[in-house]
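Q: What would this chain look like folded?
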Amino acid sequence: MALVAVIMGSPSDRDCMLECTKVLEELKIGFEVKILSAHRTPELLYEYSRSAHERGIEVIIAGAGWAAHLAGAVAANTNLPVIGVPIDSSPLKGFDSLLSTVQMPPGIPVATMAIGAGGARNAGIFAAQILALKYPEIRERLKAFRERITRDASKRADGPKGP
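A: My prediction, written as structure tokens:
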């Protein structure tokens, strides 16, 4: 069952948002992926956002570049937590997307991640942290995930071994 919706504004956002879905797969969290645009398909986005909770979705991750109104448009139409990922696809290298995503009016929050693939990866982890509050099995997998990345980072910090 999908607990997370991963929405992107354009097929060109897929490579970036793949980092998010990799994390969700690794943590065995069900998700669905949709390409919906705040500008090109506003009615579809509206309906999808409004009905997400009824379909069992508990967290929505929205990644978009350029004008990046996607996460805000979703947040305006649902009470579910929305995580925004600014994508670095525009001539401004994602700075415009960052500002569009992070500058939400009071009362319509969007948890905004870093620009690009790293932000998409963190969005998947952050969604897992939200879900871990309710689901003990996700909490345990997230704990093991964090321990593994700490171990991996420690190995790299030691550097290569000498002869």
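The chain has one domain: 4-158.
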